[in-house]
């Protein structure tokens, strides 16, 4: 491995360690939302099912996090997140079994990403 590649590798590792929890959440939403957008029903059902599964998992993690008594978020915001997690789970089932549109899931994730982006500390 030459010196330039070693430097790139070392920088890449350091860049990953300085991520904030907020940017990590944003990245997770961005990756999953892109997968939801690109998984067209009827073409590759396995891709859609995988994206739905990952989206449900993300929302389950968020709901569990806000349900924790030590979570500092305001009570009203916690309730909204839990409601969105429940809606996401129910609508995901409709997408997979009834062919409901994936658009509401994408819109919810996009709104969350917008909120995460707007609250990122300025650098």
Task: List key phrases describing it.
123 residues, mainly alpha, globular
Summarize the structure.
This protein has 5 helices and no strands. The chain is an all-alpha fold and 123 residues long.
User: How many independent structural domains?
Assistant: 1
Report the major sheet.
Answer: none
Helix content: over 70%
Shape: globular
Whole-angstrom Rg: 17 Å
Query: What is the CA–CA distance across the termini?
Result: 33 Å
Structural class: mainly alpha
Quantity of strands, as a count: 0
Give, in order, the helices and strands: HHHHH
Oligomer: single chain
User: Which residues form runs of ≥5 with pLDDT under 50?
Assistant: none
The proportion of strand residues reads: under 5%
The average pLDDT is 85
What is the number of helical segments per DSSP (H or I, 4+ residues)? 5
Detailed description of the structure:
The protein has five helices and no strands. It has 123 residues and is mainly alpha-helical. It has one domain. The longest helix has 24 residues. It is globular, with a radius of gyration of 17 Å. The model has no long low-confidence stretch (mean pLDDT 85).
Topology:
Blueprint: H1 3-17, H2 21-38, H3 45-67, H4 75-98, H5 103-118
């Amino acid at each position: 491995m030459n010196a330039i590649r070693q430097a790139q590798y070392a920088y890449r590792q350091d860049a990953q360690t300085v991520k904030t929890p907020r940017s990590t959440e944003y990245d997770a939403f961005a990756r999953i939302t892109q997968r939801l957008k690109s998984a067209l029903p009827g073409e590759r059902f396995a891709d859609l099912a995988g994206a739905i599964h990952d989206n449900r998992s993300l929302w389950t993690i968020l709901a569990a996090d806000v349900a924790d008594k030590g979570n500092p978020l305001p009570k009203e915001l916690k309730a909204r997140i839990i409601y969105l997690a429940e809606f996401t789970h129910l609508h995901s089932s409709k997408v997979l079994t009834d062919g409901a549109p994936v658009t509401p899931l994408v819109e919810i994730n996009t709104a969350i990403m917008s909120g995460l982006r707007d609250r990122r500390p300025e650098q």
